[in-house]
Design goal:
Layout (H helix, E strand, L loop, with lengths): L14 E3 L6 E3 L1 E4 L10 H13 L4 E3 L10 H11 L10 E6 L14 H15 L4 E6 L8 H13 L3 E7 L3 H13 L6 E3 L8 H4 L2 H8 L2 E5 L34 H16 L4 H9 L7 E4 L4 H8 L9 H8 L17
Parallel strand pairs: 3-4, 3-10, 4-5, 5-6, 6-7, 7-8, 8-9, 9-10
Antiparallel strand pairs: 1-2
The protein binds NADP nicotinamide-adenine-dinucleotide phosphate (NAP).
């Protein structure tokens, strides 16, 4: 059955140019890290994607290892592409990545050409696609020459298996090196995907956005809600079914009185702006026009709708920024810090 897509889906979403490329990305993109594996009912995953597409979200972000089990999120999305999003492939930007452990043995993770090329072939097979729009090196590999990892990305483009390429969680310095290598091979790097939120501000210290501007690359910020911390859901209790109860990547040690105090204060500021905290957190990562997109996750269609509501107020005045800065403090929630430490 094909989904009866909303005809007004492009009326309200904002699209931002990705660096110096020809590609526009939606201000909010949807990530399929959680809630698209075999642990979640397919109807839930389908409803999330349907809602996103109907609100103008054209970009869906995947990786080889999303699930569980690893690979199953790509299979779920393949199903959604065949059913609800049938006939809409050319309206979509679909990304995948390789870098984290995908299969056993020495060729199942990191950045060798052997792993990157095999992983992309596997992703395409699972997705049922001839090409992905963006293929990423998911993390920096300190033991593989960057020329080799970037060479694999360049080959993916040359072989028609990816239209664009990017890097994720690379430091500004390694991004510059990667960009130089790719440009030397005739490939313009499209985008960087770093973690970034009001509780995780490493990209500011690293001056990543300035570097990306120099390189002509865009930026898509993942976990803008700090995996759900930057919402009002944990303020009075830990709701059952929330990510913090799922024994996954939202660690119980994130829920300290200190961090929850910051969230409480930020929640008050959001209410003063007439926004939910989730909406303000998304608007905040988008406050710099060099940030192309906020890469959100969702466990329900209604969360997608709430998050897209951020677009109603993307502006911050200086007083608000100053008030937010008092509580938007690095809180040790960056699980990807090791990759960008090189
Ligand atoms: P996130 O947006 O920070 O967190 C999403 C979670 O927040 C949801 O699962 C939900 O938690 C809660 N939530 C979302 N919208 C809400 C709303 N409006 N109100 C209340 N709660 C809300 O992002 P994420 O899911 O951690 O990551 C997003 C995407 O970033 C991933 O899917 C992936 O594509 C990408 N990512 C990339 C990397 C990388 O290394 N490149 C790493 C991580 C993620 P509950 O489940 O508790 O309801």
């Amino acid at each position: 059955m094909t989904h009866n897509e909303a005809r007004d889906r492009y009326d309200n979403m904002k699209y931002r140019r990705c660096g110096h490329s020809g590609l526009n990305l939606p201000a909010l993109s949807l990530g399929l890290w959680h809630n698209f594996g075999q642990d979640v009912a397919i109807e839930t995953s389908m409803a999330i994607c349907r809602q996103a597409f109907d609100l103008g979200i054209t970009h869906f972000d995947l990786a080889n290892n999303y699930g569980p089990p690893a690979g199953s999120a790509e299979e779920t999305f393949a199903h959604i592409l065949k059913t609800d999003l049938h006939n809409h492939r050319d309206e979509l930007i679909i990304s995948s990545k390789a870098g984290y452990r995908m299969w056993p043995g020495p060729y199942g993770e990191f950045g060798s050409r052997k792993y990157m090329m095999a992983s992309l072939d596997q992703s395409l097979k699972r997705l049922g696609l001839e090409y992905v729009d963006i293929f990423y090196s998911h993390r920096f590999d300190p033991n593989t020459p960057l020329e080799e990892t970037m060479g694999a990305l360049a080959s993916a483009v040359q072989q028609g298996k990816a239209l664009y390429v990017g890097v994720s969680s690379y430091s500004a310095a390694k991004t510059a090196e990667a960009a130089r290598i790719l440009k030397g091979m005739g490939i313009a790097p499209l985008i960087h995907q770093p973690s970034y939120s009001m509780l995780n501000r490493w990209i500011e210290k690293d001056q990543l956005l300035s570097r990306l501007e120099t390189e002509g690359m865009g930026c898509i910020a993942f976990t803008p809600l700090a995996q759900g911390l930057l919402t009002n859901k944990y303020l009075s209790a830990v709701p059952s079914g929330s990510r913090a109860t799922a024994n996954k990547t939202m660690l119980p040690e994130f829920l300290t009185p200190e961090i929850l105090g910051r969230v409480e204060a930020l929640n008050k500021i959001a209410l003063g702006r007439g926004q939910s905290l989730a909406q303000m957190a998304i608007a905040w990562v988008l406050r710099d026009s060099r940030m192309t997109s906020a890469l959100i996750g969702a466990s329900s269609a209604s969360q997608v709708k709430d998050s897209v509501g951020a677009l109603a107020n993307l502006k911050f005045d200086e007083t608000e920024i100053a008030a937010i800065n008092q509580h938007a403090i690095d809180s040790n929630v960056n699980l990807w810090a090791e990759s960008s430490s090189h």
